[in-house]
């Protein structure tokens, strides 16, 4: 009987430690995501400002936005693997967070593409796409 009690106490201790670790990982993930979104948003805006003030020419803007969209697509692809609740231990609210995060990253990606297209074409449509997606990402 004592062996069973020791086993149960030990097992419950591991469960508590694992739950705390899971919470720490979730908090760290949220923090990293927030920083990533903010820095990407600021980077795209700074490059847009640099282009408007003739610091970067259209080709440099296209190159930099290509890097941004490529990185964003990689992260979006990784997040797509996290959208199932039971298969990877995520709770429904975690999956919703990943979905919301993915939508925000998609807006940032569309914003970067809009800026790239605008720098090359100067079209009103590309400028509108840039502004619309910048507003979406900012709201999220």
Task: Write structural notes for this entry.
The chain has 4 helices and no strands. The protein has 140 residues and is mainly alpha-helical. Mean pLDDT is 85; it is low at 3-18.
Secondary-structure topology with pairs:
Layout: H1 2-52, H2 58-80, H3 92-121, H4 124-139
Helix pairs in contact: 1-2, 1-3, 2-3, 3-4
Q: TL;DR of this structure?
A:
The chain is mostly helical and 140 residues long. 86% of the residues lie in helices and 0% in strands.
Which descriptors apply to this entry?
mainly alpha, disordered N terminus
Radius of gyration, in Å, reads 21 Å
Low-confidence stretches: 3-18
Q: How would you describe the shape?
A: elongated
Q: Label the structural class.
A: mainly alpha
Mean pLDDT: 85
């Amino acid at each position: 009987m004592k062996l069973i009690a020791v086993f149960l106490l030990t097992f419950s201790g591991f469960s508590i430690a694992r739950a705390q670790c899971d919470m720490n990982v979730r908090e760290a993930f949220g923090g990293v995501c927030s920083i990533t979104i903010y820095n990407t948003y600021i980077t795209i805006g700074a490059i847009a400002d640099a282009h408007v003030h003739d610091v970067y020419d259209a080709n440099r803007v296209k190159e930099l936005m290509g890097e941004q969209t490529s990185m964003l697509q990689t992260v979006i692809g990784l997040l797509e693997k996290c959208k199932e609740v039971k298969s990877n231990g995520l709770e429904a609210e975690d999956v919703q967070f990943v979905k919301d995060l993915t939508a925000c990253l998609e807006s940032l990606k569309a914003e970067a593409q809009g800026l790239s297209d605008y720098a090359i074409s100067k079209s009103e449509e590309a400028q509108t796409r840039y502004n619309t997606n910048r507003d979406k990402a900012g709201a999220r």
